[in-house]
Design a protein that fits this description.
By secondary structure, the chain is of the alpha+beta class. The chain contains three helices and seven strands. The protein has a single domain (about 5-130), classed as Alpha-D-Glucose-1,6-Bisphosphate, Chain A, domain 4 (2-Layer Sandwich), CATH 3.30.530.20. β3 and β4 (about 60-70) form a beta hairpin. The chain is globular and about 50 Å long.
């Protein structure tokens, strides 16, 4: 694999419950809403499960993902092709942590930061919908 070894750990606070964060990461319809500009296979099942493999695209760069670890508050993808490494998400009430490590020509820290900010914005909008008087 061509590229540089890169690693990054980021943790942010969010106004969301552990369950809302979990749903945003594991429900593929929700994941597709905030992961832009990355695109996911249209054939993905409704929910990510241990052992599932899929491909995402960032422009013309393909990244293979395999769900290597899945627990109540942690998800780890084994990555190959455009990134050789792993991406781990951990979360709890009010926080998300992302750990990314791999070899790639892509600027991984920048992509990771943008993903976390997009996820935070998505969670803000989802929480606002749940708190809206019309949904109660």
């Amino acid at each position: 694999m061509l590229g540089n070894f890169q690693q990054s750990n980021l943790r942010i606070e969010v106004e969301a419950t552990e369950q809302t964060i979990r749903d945003s990461l594991l429900n593929t319809d929700k994941l597709k809403k905030w992961i832009f500009p990355q695109t996911l296979n249209p054939e993905l099942p409704e929910t990510l499960k241990l052992g599932i493999s899929f491909t995402s695209k960032l422009g013309f760069v393909e990244i293979n993902h395999e769900v290597e670890l899945l627990s109540d508050n942690c998800l780890r993808f084994l990555l190959s092709k455009g990134i050789d490494g792993y991406h781990e998400w951990c979360w709890g009430d009010g926080w998300i942590q992302s750990r990314l490590e791999g070899i790639s020509l892509l600027p991984l820290n920048l992509g990771q930061t943008l993903s976390l900010l997009q996820l935070r914005q998505y969670l803000v909008s989802e929480t606002a919908k749940m708190d809206s008087p019309s949904t109660k």
